[in-house]
Amino acid sequence: MPRGVYVSDKRGRKSRPVEERLWPRTGRNPANGCLEWTGGTNGNGRGVIGVRDASRPNGIRMEQTHRVAWELVHGPISEGRQINHHCDNPLCCDVVDTENHCYLGGYAGNNQERSEHGRHHARRGKPITQAIVAEIRRRLAGGEQGKTLAAEFLMSEQNVSRIKLHQTWA
Ligand SMILES: [Zn+2]
Predict the structure, then answer these.
(1) pTM of the predicted model, to two decimals?
(2) How far is the CA of 138 from the centre of ligand 1 (A)?
(3) How many alpha carbons fall within 13 Å on the CB side of residue 128?
């Protein structure tokens, strides 16, 4: 099931849009630079917030805050993709600074990538192939943001702009 942008809310009860409930409950931690969730957490220490889910009997489900934050900023997360943390801070909801905090990672079932994709390797991402270069150019031409593509393909925005300008992998 593709996840849409989370909107609200509890059935039959007036509720503010999720962005108005999420961002005010985050704060920048000066010690680590993270934008930390300060509200409720689940048993694994991850931030959770109620989002609308019509398939649930009560019309709501608890979703991880960093995923909700990602969708609010970047749009829907493709099925099966994970939002990972460079900062190793599960409460961090900084989805803008994808070089240092949250980034779009691989597929949930891909334990191989998960274990190899540690902090030290995280920023290098996957090898860039001609196919990826072609897709990036096509999507840039279609109006997508370099920042979004950089996060999706686990590369720096600088690399995306080099690809765009045909400075590399021409
Ligand atoms: Zn962080």
Answers:
(1) 0.57
(2) 31
(3) 21
